[in-house]
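Predict the 3D structure for this chain.
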Amino acid sequence: MPTVDVYNLKKKKVGQAELADAVFGVEVKEHLFHAAVRYQMAARRAGTHSTKGRTDVRGGGRKPYRQKGTGRARQGTLSAPQYRSGGVVHGPHTRSHAHKMPKKVRRAALKSALSRRTEENAVFVFDSFELPGIKTKSFIDVLKNFEMEEVLLVLTELNDTVARSARNIPGVKVLPVDGLNVYDVLDHKNLAITTAAVDAVVARLEG
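Done. Predicted structure below.
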């Protein structure tokens, strides 16, 4: 069971915490990363792309010219795809790009991502994460104390003061436990999390 030091925001060690092997110490299965990220990116797509087929184009009811005697190929309608402003052949239509991924596989992928960061010693545990007010400099000072960049901060619930203090800092993202996902864990080099959030993550993934 991995054991990590617990710090306050001034980088003073205040204790230790044990990270559950079932969540932070599993075998890393990298093929799950691809599947999980693809699943997330597909679900985020709007799917609002659309084109008009020949039956959707306005007009085209009249035959452009007579069938025979012109020396040209016969044509039946101006809405045919070979004409300018004609319909599109096999064009995209509004649809959902989301696909299914079993819940057990999604959990396994997230456990693998958390375990990867634990292996890299890139998990920083805080006793709590409270800022006196909405101020970007206060958040930057914490990052400087720990010499961290590209940080994903996980809290039990979204703290508006912390989130608004961090929103303009490149490479920093704040998420509640319910929003923790594989893509964001992999997209940030470091994972910062409170002790309460660690318990909540374990409860979420072990249940």
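Residues 103-119 form the longest helix (17 residues).
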